[in-house]
Queue: 3 jobs
Job 1
Amino acid sequence: MNREKEVLKIEHISKGFDQLNVLDDISLTVHEGEIIVIVGPSGCGKSTLLRCLNGLEAVDDGHVYLGEETVNPSVKNITRIRERIGMVFQSYDLFPHKTILENVTLAPMKVQKRKRAEVNEEAKKLLERVGLSAKMSQYPRQLSGGQKQRAAIVRALIMHPEVLLFDEVTAALDPEMVREVLDVMLDLARQNRTMLIVTHEMAFARAIADRVIFLDGGHIVEDSDPGEFFTLPKTDRARKFLNTFTFDTVNKEI
Amino acid sequence: MIDTDVITNYIPLFVDGFFLTVKIGWLGILLSFLIGIIASAVLHFKVPVLSAVVKVYVELFRNTPLLVQLFFIYYGLPVLGFHVSAEGCGIVGLGLLGGSYMTETIRSGLDAVPPSQTESAIALGMSRPQVFWMIILPQAFSTSVPALVANVIFLLKETSVFSAISLMDLMFTAKDLIGLYYDTTESLFLLVVFYIIILLPVSIAGTVIEKKARYKIFGS
Ligand SMILES: Nc1ncnc2c1ncn2[C@@H]1O[C@H](COP(=O)(O)OP(=O)(O)OP(=O)(O)O)[C@@H](O)[C@H]1O
Ligand SMILES: [Mg+2]
């Protein structure tokens, strides 16, 4: 692994919907093995940013590069580029008509044209690692939210992506299932995966991040290391944002 | 009373009509599925110009009787210089009528698949056609099985107007025999029996397929 290697390079991108300017001149470079956590208030454009990074959304201005290649929905080899970027969504979005094993093996076989036997073997290993061995031949509806999300992570991993994008992957989960999914991501961190994570789990963010990006008003307001960001944020806006996650002890009137 | 000797004598004639009805019926249905899949994809993806063409086609064919459509194809096309056999006309006519129904049915199935399904498949590097064939269409079919089966049964029943373009199907056989020998009861009895032989398996198979499709996605 080469910490100097630039995996993803975002240069001055802007993105709007109709009148609304969502991202305004964002630049960011992601190095190999780096884990960047993106936080910010609801509607600040976190999802839009991630979606621009794998060409689900077209940027209005600026460029996104994966290695040497330009990422944009209109480039000819966009599907080849997307293979190299894993994305996991808040709502899992497993394919309901396919078993868990089929969900995981579909893209490697159909997109990467890999052999069924090899793909099956890898899928089984990965599913075992996230504790889903027993669920392989079941359909998504038979799994809990946490199990579905772990399967969705495996579905992205089996493509051997150079970078993984996580968009609030625990936001739809019941509290008792959040941990099992975060544990899988911590395991990926230990394997030195390159990841961009959007999350509202602040304790997790602090534990896993190499860098924290605070997005607000379409700008990167802070780009700090987690220790600094969570204890001494540079800006008022970040401080206010972090305050929304803390509660003072209630002093009851006597 | 039903004369069993007459029945025995007529059965081979009805068997011929049966095979013709089944052949034209199912080829027409196959064609209607092809048309339905393509036309519904055009509507679902809002393909410019073609969407308008599909909408006109659907309205036109859903709102005119099959008999009129058949006459149009059978007597109209030769005028334009196209010569199609009666069987060909039957298949095309049924296919076009069925296609208009299938288009609507499949389209509502396609529209019911959440857009996030497309996005997660696209994010895995799948191409648009792959997403359509492997992800959206199977889910659309699963939810529309009951309506699709109803369409198939409707179309098989519609084959009974084929006799009008002198195709020797079941209806033609029955009418012919009644006209020649006045064995109305026996002929109608056989007509009913053979239509049931055609339709009952479809109805049963439909229920089985519906259960299977529902089980995967919905569990029950
Ligand atoms: N396809 C779209 N069309 C129009 N507006 C959109 C679209 N997608 C997002 N937006 C708007 O862009 C803004 C940013 O949305 P985005 O989903 O990126 O925010 P977010 O930071 O992910 O928010 P959350 O924390 O709620 O997930 C929002 O105001 C949203 O309404
Ligand atoms: Mg979001």
Job 2
Amino acid sequence: MSKVKVAFTLNDQEISLLVQPGERLLDTIRDRLNLTGTKEGCGVGECGACTVMLDGQAVNSCLVLTAQVDGREVRTVEGLGGEEEVDKLQQAFIDHQAVQCGFCTPGMLMSARALLNDTSSPTREDIKTALDGNLCRCTGYKQIVEAVEAAAEAEGAD
Amino acid sequence: MIFRNETTISLRTEKEAKTWFKTMLFWSFSIFFYSIVISGRILALIVEIKINKEKFMREVFPMPERQQINKSKKRVDARAKVTGKAKFGADLKFHNMLYGKVVRSNYPHARIKSINTDEAEAHPEVAVVMTAEDIPHNLFGVIIENQQVLAEDRVLYIGDGVAMLAADSREAAREAAELIEVEYEELPGVFGVEEARRPDAPVVMPGEENNQVIHHPLRKGDVEQGMAQADVVLERQYTTQFVEHAYLEPEAVTVIPEERNTLVTVYGSVQNPNATRDALATVLDCDLSNVRIIQDNMGGSFGGKDENISSMACRAALMALQTGRPVQLVNTREESIIESYKRHPYTMKYRIGARENGELVAMEIEAAADSGAYACQTPFVTWRSVVQATGPYEVPHVKTDTYGFYTNSPYTGAMRGYGSPPVIFAQESMMDELAWELGISPEEIRRKNMFANNSRTASNQKLDNHEVSLAEVMDKALEAIDYQEKYRRYSQPQPGDIKRGIGFAISYRGVSLGAEAIDAAGAIVSVQKDGSIIVYSGLAENGQGLKTIFSQIAAEELGVSLDRITHMETDTSISPESGSTVASRSTLMGGSAVKNAAENIKTVIKEFVAEEYDYQGEIVYRDDALFTSEGSKLVDFPELAASAFHSGVFLSSYGWYKAPGISWDEETGQGRPYFTYVYGCQAAEVEVDTGTGEVRVLNMAAAHDVGKAINPANVRGQIYGGTVMALGHALMEDLGFSEGYIRHTNFDEYLIPTIKDAPDNVEAIIVENPDPAGPYGAKSIGEPAMELGGAAINNALSQATGRRLRDLPLNLERVLLGRNLSREG
Ligand code: FES
Ligand code: FES
């Protein structure tokens, strides 16, 4: 099968690659570009561990082909904060003990980031809807909801 | 000599001598008593001064409050985890690494007639293909060595590995695995404990006479005599299902051959590094010191990354040694669900006798657990069930028999709660049934029978060395959820399809391993010359927050800020072997070991300070410095560390903690199975649509006596996570078994609770009665938080519907059809 050329922005950097037409964005990010913050928990679009932002929307990167992101903008957990800094959402996850094993965390953060970029003061229901595709087996979700609420508030205060 | 002269002088006449003797005696006694009085007085004065001074000091310089303990410190690993920098097993890459793949059985039980690997071997990217024939030492196991690395001539369950290979890329490994041809002769399988225990059942495990893995009896009093005294005798059967751990990270290991003086070094999501090391040393037939396991971040485990990780590590190691290249094995979710061990399903028969006033007089219990294809941890899992099966109640006459049986289902092992969630589900459902039968409230029946201080358990252990806080946890949980009012309200007829109910459950739980195994743990605390501190622990971080807790303890003892501490990953070549990170034992056992190591260092510091700073008194460690008891600063911690180093003083230590003694009689189940217990109560409020069978848990309240919360936010996190995991167990989790086949192999069908399934609110209530056995009085929370929810939800559901269900999960069908009504006893 002939490879396809793909050019896209990843965490504000221009990327240009030759990929197999069937290659998943998840594999491109993890294996080829060595950004392993994005996780694979199910491979079928059910767990949300692989969530990244594609043009600002949260998507499951295990269901997206890299060929589809040509010309688009991809953001992963590594592109959330600055080099030294973490962003307010990440800080809220730290402050509210919203992290246990941390395997769901990158995906949770990306789904929550997409929500907060869209909605500055989300309701609890909005948060639950935005995170409904992200499974967490450790936290029981409560401290995650609290963290997202706190981040929304902190960002609203800016 | 002088004495003799005097004696000679004094013996001039008998009379004189007597008088002299009397005088001497008088004066000696007088002086003696006087000196006692004087010294007593002086002592009293000194004590008085000292006490007053201490009182004075206390008032003027109040004892610094603890700086780390009982504080919701941020997790030490949170930053790495929110930035994506934290490395998990599948994130590692090594030069020249191969990707492994395992070919698994097509049948739950079959004879392997032939395996043809020729085509796979011919694949240009394949480096090695192996079958059981290539593995001289093919068996391992923690308790009974009968788990096969790869199946020899029979596959015993659907997840048994038959062949394995490693290739240059994942795709090539996948492709080549398809090329392996296995010819099977399907054999009749044994499914479920009822079938397994029949005398004519086929024997699952080669070399065994029947399918029984274990039987634990317990006898207290005379159960028939007890039943004869009862006004009411109820008999019920309850069942629970196989449950998948569903850690979000599928299992991953990488094995590097012959690296740094070891035969193999293993990285990965290993819950119990020492158990995995044992398995590797057995399978590779080498010394423990030749195997090194370094733990990566664990994406959840809940008891689940033990034997199946050991099995994967053995497979990867064999291929790595064969090829001389690193081999990585990462399961897909489907592979994980097909192969990994599950929570034991239980079939439990309860017979319970009570007087009219609710007083329990006798309990007879038979609990049978499905061990699946291997023994794995069944002997220990079922042992915990024995101790908890009668619940936290005083019962004079008890007879329990707990069994494990081999079947051709997936093997079962440790999962959060171990042997307790099934028996608590049965036992606490039964208490409600009994209350209904007697016409008293669920609350009253529990209050009448539950343990208090000095109660005796079914094992006849007197609970006299810690606070038995059942009444306190129960009061607090019920109050938080407004139980009485809601119970009254939901007891009235509720019109329409939507009905609500409220229920609760209580438990006592033995802390740590109990009589399962030797119970000791170790740690290393090492102060560097700049005052930074490295901690190594033999117990492992599984995501629960162990590193944070241990860092807090080290920081508290040495009075330093948390960021001075670096908690390393468990490394079996460095960390003291401490048994498994299971049984909610980390804080108590490992925490005590860290504390002990820090205390050892403080003993050395005290000597050094006496010499170097000319201060002999008590040293207060706080704010990154050392202070005198009067509060004047002696030296900053980094400066102390530097000067100790430059004086040749060693500020590192191993710490060790051995659990207090226990005893157990295998024949009668009597003794002191655990050195201490924790107590918990969880209440649930549910809403059920009787038209569709849908159940929603609206609220939960969970009160747990943890002894002392080292980190309250962490404790709450354990409670929130535990209750939601229990909710999944109770309402939805189902592997879709049929005759040994698993139908639900990914999260689209094996449903675990999402954020919307979680209750609207979970109230976590931390109760603290410090326990003499734990560091700062701390005990445990990981498993207690998970064991009660199933029963609480079931009890609430029964109140809502007026019907009692006895089989988990309480899914739509069961709630709607009440299928097991026919079993009403
Ligand atoms: S890995 Fe993509 S949703 Fe689970
Ligand atoms: S923190 Fe472990 S899965 Fe969410």
Job 3
Amino acid sequence: MEALKEVDANEAYENDLPADVALDCRAHQIFYSDFLAVRDSHVPIKRNQITGFIGPSGCGKSTVLKSINRMNDLIRGFRFVGDVHFHGINIYDKNIDPVSVRRNIGMVFQQPNPFSMSIFDNVAFGLRLNRYKGNMHEKVEKALRSAALWKEVKDKLKNNGLSLSGGQQQRLCIARAIATEPRVLLMDEPCSALDPIATRQIEELMVELKKQFTVAIVTHNMQQAVRVADQTAFFAVDISKGGRTGYLVEMGPTKEVFENPQEELTKEYLHGEFS
Amino acid sequence: MSQTGLQLPQLERQPMEPRALKSIILSAITIACAITACIPLFSVLILLIYRGGKRLTLELFYTLPPGAFDAHGVGGFGNAILGTAFMVGIAGLISIPFGILAAVYLAELDPHSKISETARFCAKTMTGLPSIIAGVFAYAVVVLVMGHYSSWAGGIALSLLMIPTVMLTAEEAIKMVPNPMREAAYGMGCTPAQSLVKVILPVAMPGIITGVVLAVARAAGETAPLLFTALFSESWLSPNNPTASLAVLIYNWSSSPYENLIELAWAASLILVVLVFVLNIISRSMGGKTKL
Ligand SMILES: Nc1ncnc2c1ncn2[C@@H]1O[C@H](COP(=O)(O)OP(=O)(O)O)[C@@H](O)[C@H]1O
Ligand SMILES: [Mg+2]
């Protein structure tokens, strides 16, 4: 958080976002080497709401999501043309440190990926990275409670995080991500490796979490989008120019997108999914 | 067989059928070969226990080599045990940090760069380096320059043999760490260095230690690199002077005309083989510990 504030005032982007938008992603073009993966996608993410990304596989949902906290920087040949406005700055600005971006914009992945260390250390991990000086136990307990995992693990905090079940591991990853209280939490198909009961638990958890955080979630499950998302962004693949480029077709409040889609493509896709 | 006249397929075993027979014979041959592979180690162990076991006393560990005319049963080789430990220690201090840091670069930082490709190729070639060449090299660059034989020269010669083993096994161990763990580390806001130290190396550590232990075991038994570098000594360790080691002791004394020295050489062989044996068992048990 500190590092982000350090940005020089005159370098800072003039904050003209609507008050309810926490983060504004304007992806003009996203490349993997020469391959144009995503184009013309403007995705505003509203504060304390859940924004769902839906669309057929390969349409660039993960690409856009990971661009938001610069996870894609790790991929060779990745190039993002556009900007992501967050608290008055463009996180793709040259003097922005991607590491501090990731400390402010947390991420939960498709496969639960706890570290091979104790449950406690998993949750304390980010706090220690940020040299948190206060009461570590209190923070860890709070994060585990918020992730609806505390009751199940409070007697075995010393056990390895990998000894938990898949659903518990994913909730541990959520606890790990929210322990440092990031402003935004990104989730890339967080339930696709989980059984229906664990999925329900995570969904309830997300609805709980949006009181504190801003959440963006990729899901391939339409019903899940309807259940949890306040806003829905529908992506599709454009094969007209020979490539396979993803783009944002439409975005709006979930209810409107599902009940009264503006675009023909959205209608067809939703019809296909629900019939 | 059945009332409808349907032919049920023959499902029972037919051991005498040619196909089955061939398979049985082949299995028998492979088993025989596998068992034969165990014979050298066990016969060496039995021979060493038989010849060296009777001289195996605590005295060996704290006394100096006997003079040629000392009574039978007198003397030991505490200095050689200490010398081997000291020189392997020096080699470890050089090769372990060096090998692991190089492996970090190869596996994690830039696996496909020219430097990585070249270093990997060099290390693979070095694993096949005849150990005597390591000795000759250390003789040229350390002994000739310093002007005398020393444990330092011996340690450096051994480190040349250890570096490629440590480096390549550590690289493999780091590469085995699953990618989602790296993503998790970066996703939490780790710098590359933090992700390495806090997440990747702890997971890779059992594999890295396995490589280190195997390299130590190999170095402890090497004779040729020490012949031209550390030579041998009849007195206690003095690092700037020629230094005794178990391997060179065995080489020197086993061809001596004195029964006393020959017996001690057998005992030294037994100690060395048991050491290597134990190190290998340690490395095996470490290898199984990887938590993923
Ligand atoms: N690391 C990568 N390197 C090259 N191409 C990639 C990479 N990741 C994704 N892509 C490509 O980008 C497109 C969008 O992928 P992705 O964002 O994963 O889609 P989604 O999450 O919607 O299924 C796909 O065509 C995919 O093949
Ligand atoms: Mg995806």
